[in-house]
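User: Show me a protein chain along with its predicted structure.
Assistant: Here is one chain, sequence first, then structure tokens.
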Amino acid sequence: MNIRYLSFAFLIATNSFLTLQAAETANQQMSEITKNLRKPAIKVQLLQNSEGALVTSKGPYNVYDPKTGKKLDSSYLSSSYYTYPTTDGLKWGQEFPGTYQLLIVPDKAATTVMVAGTEYKGVAYIYQIQGRLGAVNEVSLEDFVLSVLSTHVPADLNSKEALAALAIVMRTEVYNAMKQAKNKYWDVKASTFNYQGCAIERHDSPFVEAVRSTRGMILNQSSHARWFQEGQSNAPIKRIEELAQNGKDAANILSQLIPGANISILK
């Protein structure tokens, strides 16, 4: 066999191995960087095709290149800068030449990130595609459910079992959307579930306890339950509240409204 051919094939194989090794190393570094993010977590597209956006970390933070896992910057103070694409990367306070995506990771769980005026828990990815700006928020599934459910249920609905039933269905629909995601950079768009970040969350005891007490609970048959789609709520709120007032718990409420539905726990 031709020695040149063998040498060329070996070079290609070596480069492929090194590329895979670098990708694996970057993935491991990213796992370490986001280790404090409670799992499972969901990636939500906040912006796309934008000229720029004001991005604020409301507390200490670190900035990474999510492609390599390399740390690019850090601060013990809050920072707020208008972020926009440059001819050779991104600018957030300073220019990051040759870097087309940034990951902003708060140092503390209580620290939030604001993107275009909306406050979010978790971490924020800022990226440039063809000279336009995009943004993704990665947040725990439970925090996401707490936020989106707040926008879908009446403020005067205080029955724990009714709220628990709604939380289970919401979590199921969000989890199914995550499983069906085809884009490797984000799972859902913010508009799909009318996600408005953490500033609009309900914090009253019945609501918070309903979400927490059902943590990880989903329906194993959700094809008949599409109550929260494209920012709209089609949940039979009055019927759910009526069943709760008659002493039915969340599992009984759902079994009556969604035939064949059973509750399982996410691992």
